[in-house]
Write a structure and sequence with these properties.
A hairpin with a 4-residue loop joins strand 9 and strand 10. The chain is an alpha/beta fold and about 280 residues long. Strands 6-3-7-2-8-1-10-9 form an eight-stranded mixed beta sheet, sandwiched between helices. A two-stranded antiparallel ribbon has the order 4-5. The structure holds 3,4-dihydroxybenzoic acid and fe (iii) ion. Fe (iii) ion (FE) binds next to loops.
């Protein structure tokens, strides 16, 4: 049987991947974030998940204005490293899990979710920034990754409630998988940030703290909010925290937060969590 052993939350800003590539983890600017990854890496090394289901979004890399899937499920056996315009990062391709990926596809469609099933979906910073901060990749990535990309860029985007329900459906799909696999679920992005317009640079640490509290204890109340609520509280791009709601939806009603970190960086409120299932 598939088993979800926990849920992680991580930023996915491209600057995080660039800091990894420059070995800049201990600089004054980056240390508050990368110190927050240390317990997460230790947790992953201890728990050794077989598969990581990764909720992120494409940033006009694999999809553009001609085709924007609301939900895109990557079932490839290997995921390519995308070139986002300045060359590919020097990372090996990321292994996928076609069998579990197709099981998710079948199960989600049966439950009324209709993801675009993607055989080729190169991964951009939305996936690679958090993966490269959380996992070693030499000589090879230690985990198979199933990306589920949610459109959070181009309205209409799915509601917070829909993303939470998607997470629940993914949780049930993993539980109905017949092979014994240990699965970790990773929600990425956020927290507060606004990269455009009059409120460029807006960050709201008080809301970010409240969001993380409620994500742990009362995610239904977050699922009940609308996009405007998130945008007002955390800035326009913070609406991508619906990816964290999808992660939370895969977990049990009660979770234990075994790690939490917050770093108010220049443009983004970076949050990190590890949740374990309680029941
Ligand atoms: C940036 C991009 C992102 O996708 C994000 O979530 C945060 C920051 C950026 O370009 O700085
Ligand atoms: Fe993003």
């Amino acid at each position: 049987m598939g088993r979800i052993i926990g849920g992680l939350g991580s930023p996915h800003a491209p600057a995080v991947g660039a800091a990894v590539d420059r070995h800049d983890e201990d600089s004054a600017y980056w240390k508050p974030l990368f110190d927050g990854y240390k317990p997460m890496r230790a947790w992953l090394e201890r728990e050794r998940p077989d598969v990581c289901i990764l909720f992120s979004n494409d940033h006009f890399t694999s999809f553009f204005l001609d085709v924007i899937p609301t939900f895109a499920l990557g079932v490839a056996g290997t995921h390519e490293i995308a070139d986002e315009g300045w060359g590919r990062r020097a990372l090996p391709p990321v292994p996928g899990d076609t069998e579990l990926g197709w099981h998710l596809a079948r199960s989600l469609v049966e439950e009324g979710f209709d993801p675009a099933v993607c055989h080729r979906m190169p991964l951009d910073h939305g996936c690679l920034a958090p993966l490269s901060a959380l996992f070693p990749w030499e000589p090879a990535w230690p985990v198979r990754v199933i990306p589920i990309l949610v459109n959070v860029l181009h309205f209409p985007i799915p509601t917070p409630a829909r993303c939470f329900e998607l997470g629940r459906a993914v949780g049930r799909a993993v539980a109905s998988y017949e092979d014994d696999v240990k699965v970790v679920v990773l929600g990425t992005g956020g927290l507060s940030h606004q990269l455009t317009g009059e409120r460029f640079g807006f960050i709201n640490p008080h809301w970010d703290a409240e969001f993380l509290d409620r994500l742990e204890r009362d995610p239904e109340s977050l699922a009940a909010l609308g996009h405007r609520d998130y945008i007002e509280r955390g800035g326009s791009e913070s609406v991508e925290v619906i990816l964290w709601l999808a992660m939370r939806g895969t977990l049990a009603k009660r979770v234990r937060c075994v790690h939490r970190n917050y770093y108010h960086a220049t443009l983004t409120g970076y949050g990190q969590v590890v949740f374990e299932n309680v029941g």
